[in-house]
Recover the amino acids of this structure.
């Protein structure tokens, strides 16, 4: 709410991110750094090494491990320069708790305004360049997920929209992973922007 009131007062509608750092850094859903033992239920901290795509930011590793504030923690495995001007995204919930849905929907708000960066949500996978999967895959959603993927035109990208999505044995290979459960919108935005680049 503070960013909204500040925008009205100063005439600023949207912050400059991804140019520079976020104006309002999120708390725990950023890079984790530290040393020592960690009680990690997902194995995101292995021999002192933090593995972002496994992290659900449950805070059980605290105080040995703490967030650094770095939101650029997404894992990009494959990009496609064809989407450098615009990226059309179709989201599919395959069993999430709803937290990821709220965070990704925030990207359309004036604060993040993903449309200014050429990123758009579409209502059908037939118009999508990227499929963003939210939640761990339930058995009842396996067929709808595959049907959505098959309906997409080539070339197509698949993104794990949260750490939960990489927990189960997925039938699709992810081109990118957005860490967190739920992840913060800055990380989501950063990953979606990088998908359209010629290089990772």
């Amino acid at each position: 709410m503070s960013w909204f009131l500040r925008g009205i007062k100063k005439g600023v509608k949207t912050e400059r991110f991804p140019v520079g750092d976020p104006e309002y850094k999120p708390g725990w859903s950023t890079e984790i750094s530290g040393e020592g033992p960690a009680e990690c239920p997902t194995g995101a901290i292995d021999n002192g090494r933090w593995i972002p795509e496994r992290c659900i930011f449950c805070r059980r590793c605290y105080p040995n491990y703490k967030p650094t504030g770095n939101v650029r923690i997404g894992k990009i495995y494959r990009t496609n320069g064809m989407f450098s001007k615009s990226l059309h995204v179709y989201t599919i919930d395959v069993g999430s708790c709803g937290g990821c849905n709220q965070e990704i929907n925030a990207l359309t708000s004036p604060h993040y305004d993903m449309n200014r960066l050429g990123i758009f949500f579409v209502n059908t996978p037939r118009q999508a360049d990227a499929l963003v999967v939210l939640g761990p895959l339930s058995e009842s959603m396996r067929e709808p997920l595959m049907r959505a993927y098959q309906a997409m035109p080539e070339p197509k990208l698949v993104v794990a929209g949260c750490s939960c999505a990489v927990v189960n044995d997925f039938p699709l290979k992810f081109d990118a992973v957005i860490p967190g459960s739920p992840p913060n919108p800055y990380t989501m935005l950063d990953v979606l922007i990088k998908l359209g680049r010629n290089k990772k």
Summary: The CA atoms of residues 143 and 149 lie 10 Å apart. The chain is about 20% helix and 15% strand.
